[in-house]
Amino acid sequence: MRPMDYLTRALLALMLALLLPAAWAGVPNNRAEPAYAEEQTILQAQQDSRAPEPALDNAASGKAHIDRHYIGQYGAREGDVIIQRGGNLWRTWRNGWISSTSGILIILAIIGIALFYFVIGPFARPRESGRRILRYTDFERLIHWSTAISFLLLAFTGLIIFFGKVILMPWMGHGVFSGLAFISKYIHNIFGPIFIICSLIMFFTFIHRNVFTRVDRAWLRRGGGLATHEHVPAGFFNAGEKLWFWLGLTVLGLVMTFSGLILDFTNFNQSRYVIQVANYLHLAGATFYIMAAMGHIYIGTIGTPGTYEGMRHGTVDEEWARQHHELWYEQVKSGEAPMAPPPEPPRVPPRPRPGPAT
Ligand code: HEM
């Protein structure tokens, strides 16, 4: 053998001597603790996945099987759960039939409102009398607009979080969409509690005007004249507005408040199951709230000309009040309800008084 061959063989032998123990150490065996633990976890997970899930009213719900396995292993807090079996079901439902149903309902509401506008048409604009009546005080308008603006911010950012990945990301690209989703999430998280406070103030400001009376039953029976455009008497708020107050602001407001707070403050050790159920409720509530809000915005603007002025400036024309809220109009005329405050006299700066000649 040539000296070069000796050298090559010696180098190969050295390499083998170095590599073999390393390779041996890499082979999974019972003494390699992490590999053993993983294997046991997989076996446990397989076994758990065959066991029936405890019902939601069972205290073990969300903690048993795979979840319990990990809690037991790494700690007792929900934050220590690494794998949660229900998570995959939640993801497939949220991204599957729930998002499709929600999207279809919102699109149907938009089509329904458009059809209503083009087929039945809005109310005719009443002939202006030129006399104004006070409808909302500055405070009432401030609280309405604060609630409305925070609602719109929540609705737009919520829809971006919900549908953005499917609708926006394909044409925006990952980079732009991730920035938008990030901003949306923070706006949503911050405006949630602001919306709750505004809704509460709004509730107590307007509750006394939203008590149902016999007049409302008659208004509902005739559909408020929305389809026929006939004149139907109503008080300060009609039955449709009262329904929006009780079913929208109050019932849906409560659903969004409780589910939203559970989603917003995950630091109270609530289990992932609770958060997932809150997410379903939040999505259902958001869908109905957004649909109803679109109807409210349509009727309050182009559907009933003259209505928006009340919320914009605080006053409405007398003729509008007579046509749409006749009973309230009569109260105003009889002095029971306030008229518009007289316009403020223009501010003329005081003329400088001629002083003594110097
Ligand atoms: C009433 C108006 C509201 C609407 C229309 C609305 C809508 C939505 C929608 C569509 C989502 C997306 C859910 C998903 O993608 O699975 C969402 C998420 C969320 N909402 Fe709301 N929401 C409203 C009010 C609130 C309130 C009042 C709070 C809190 C107090 C809140 C807190 C949250 C949180 C924390 C999330 C999860 C955001 C994230 O992914 O990190 N929401 N909302």
TrEMBL record:
It holds the Pfam family Ni_hydr_CYTB. One of its GO terms (molecular function) is formate dehydrogenase (NAD+) activity. The chain crosses the membrane at residues 97-121, 142-166, 186-207, 243-263, 283-303. Residues 333-358 are annotated as: Disordered. Its cofactor is heme. Its EC number is 1.17.1.9. Residues 135-312 form the Cytochrome b561 bacterial/Ni-hydrogenase domain. Residues 339-358 have a biased composition (Pro residues). Keywords: Cell membrane, Electron transport, Heme, Iron, Membrane, Metal-binding, Oxidoreductase, Signal, Transmembrane, Transmembrane helix, Transport. It is an enzyme of class 1 (oxidoreductase). PANTHER family: FORMATE DEHYDROGENASE GAMMA SUBUNIT, FORMATE DEHYDROGENASE, NITRATE-INDUCIBLE, CYTOCHROME B556 FDN SUBUNIT. This is Formate dehydrogenase subunit gamma. It comes from Massilia terrae.
